[in-house]
Amino acid sequence: MSTTQLKRVPASRSTVAKKYAMAVSGLIMVGYLVLHMYGNLKALQSPEAFNDYAHHLRTIGEPILPHTGLLWIVRVVLLAAVLIHAYCAISLWRRNKKAAGFTGGLGAKRYHSKQNRTGIQRSYASFTMRWGGVTIALFIVFHILNLTTNDIHPGGASDEPYEKLHNSFQYFWVLLSYTVAMIAVGFHLWHGFWSALQTLGQNRSSTRIESNANTAAIVIAAVITIGFLVPPFSIYFFGLGG
Amino acid sequence: MKITVNVWRQKNADAKGAMVTYQLDDVLEDMSFLEMLDVLNETLTLAGEDPVAFDSDCREGICGSCGVVINGIPHGPEVTTTCQLHLRSFKDGDVIDIEPWRASGFPVVKDLVVDRGAFDRIIQAGGYISVNTGSAPEANNLPVPKEDADHAFEAATCIGCGACVAACPNGSAMLFTAAKITHLGLLPQGQPERDSRVLGMVEQHDAEGFGGCTNIGECTTACPKGIPLDVISRLNRDLLGALAAGKA
């Protein structure tokens, strides 16, 4: 009988340390999402307010920072957070798959029983963290090509931030893709925000359901999902901004 | 009652196993789950077949030796150990799937028996306290807040059965490791090794090939002793503290 021992690595590079990295990078992205969502809601006020806000983002910190200086700092921090988050996720994903004792090549099974396939109590959100994360990453690429660089411009290209938004959300497929993505973000945050707080040692309740960290996760997931969907739905269904 | 069992049969660690079906026509609902396996083994032995290997010792739910995955759930449908599960939890005519704990840190030895030596090595890596020999000290010299004592005791009820690993979709042994960290770290006697304990045990946990925790909570619902989920949060907090203090 053989027990295979892996190479012993210092605790600073352990699975727990990788979870710290995922938690911190995840929380940075959540912080960004809250600010981004707040900015989007300016669209409800007026097209001018939205454009002024977008313009202001490029002038914050002047003259100490150059034009669009802060924006680039934020972009670099976010890119680093995304890369760290994804690197740790993939590395843990591979390890965990192996650790769970799946045997046999393609279509490998852990337990052969067909009963209780979905576990005892685990949530749909926890099942979809990994592929949900991949979905969100692909969406971000589309989103940047759509509303930042405006390379994808259904309804016509524009230099005006509000017009870009307004032109795109005349189309049902655009609305649908953003809706699917925001629901994916909601599920990801529902499990992810709770998980980040537990990973950083902030849960003091014996079950997830009783934990304040879980309540906070539900609130943040709901606020972000709904907050992001209000402007596009207002434009498509209620003709916001004409 | 009549029960059909699908049991994982595997000759040895290197053999390829498979599920094998057996029919039990005359078992009683008052029998424990392990007694049902005993009956099965008697039948197999009389027929000249190899009996199903499984671990058991106290059969009182306190030693942590027994434990199999029943219908996809470690220790089966009730929150208890396999030995304390009775056939009254099943219906006449039920099909029961019985499999060993599945994790790369727990290699199968034979049939339903796995090698849980990994847990012993995690304990060796820090699950102890330094004590002076000699006569017992005066108990009131070391005041312990009631809340800490209760929580430490709750964590100390872990019997090391391994159900947490079998339940965890990542094959992580964090609940076991964290129960020990909490049990010893909450009490004054556990303080001298508090940092080295968490560092050593987490390193050993990973070296054994267990997975990382994703805070799903299957472990705590499968745990026959109800070890709470916040012990993992405490381990994370302690490790963060030890790393921040530069103890690594």
Account of the protein in words:
The complex is a heterodimer of chains A (242) and B (248). With 242 residues, chain A is an all-alpha fold. Chain A has one domain (13-100, 127-238). Chain A is built from nine helices and no strands. In chain A, 31% of the residues are buried. Chain B has 248 residues and is an alpha+beta fold. Chain B folds into two domains: 3-110, Roll (Ubiquitin-like (UB roll)); 116-131 and 140-244, Orthogonal Bundle (Fumarate Reductase Iron-sulfur Protein, Chain B, domain 2), CATH 1.10.1060.10. Chain B has helices at residues 33-46, 117-124, 146-156, 163-167, 174-185, 194-207, 218-222, 230-244; strands at residues 3-9, 18-24, 69-70, 73-74, 95-99, 108-110, 113-114. A five-stranded mixed β-sheet of chain B has the order 2-1-5-3-4. Chain B has a two-stranded antiparallel ribbon with strand order 6-7. In chain B, a hairpin with a 2-residue loop joins strand 3 and strand 4. In chain B, helix 5 (174-185) packs antiparallel against helix 6 (194-207) and helix 6 (194-207) packs across helix 8. Classes of the chains: A mainly alpha (242), B alpha+beta (248). At the A-B interface, helix 1, helix 4 and helix 8 of A face helix 6, helix 7 and helix 8 of B.
Mean pLDDT of chain B: 95
Low-confidence stretches of chain B: none
Radius of gyration of chain A: 21 Å
* Percentage beta strand of chain A: under 5%
Strand tally of chain B is 7
> Biggest interface pair, residues each?
A-B, 56 and 64 residues
Structural class of chain A: mainly alpha
CATH homologous superfamily label of the largest domain in chain B: Alpha-helical ferredoxin
Domain module count of chain B: 2
Overall geometric form of chain B: elongated
Terminal residue distance of chain B: 58 Å
Which architecture of the largest domain in chain B would the CATH scheme give at its second level?
Orthogonal Bundle
Oligomer: heterodimer
Cα end-to-end separation of chain A: 73 Å
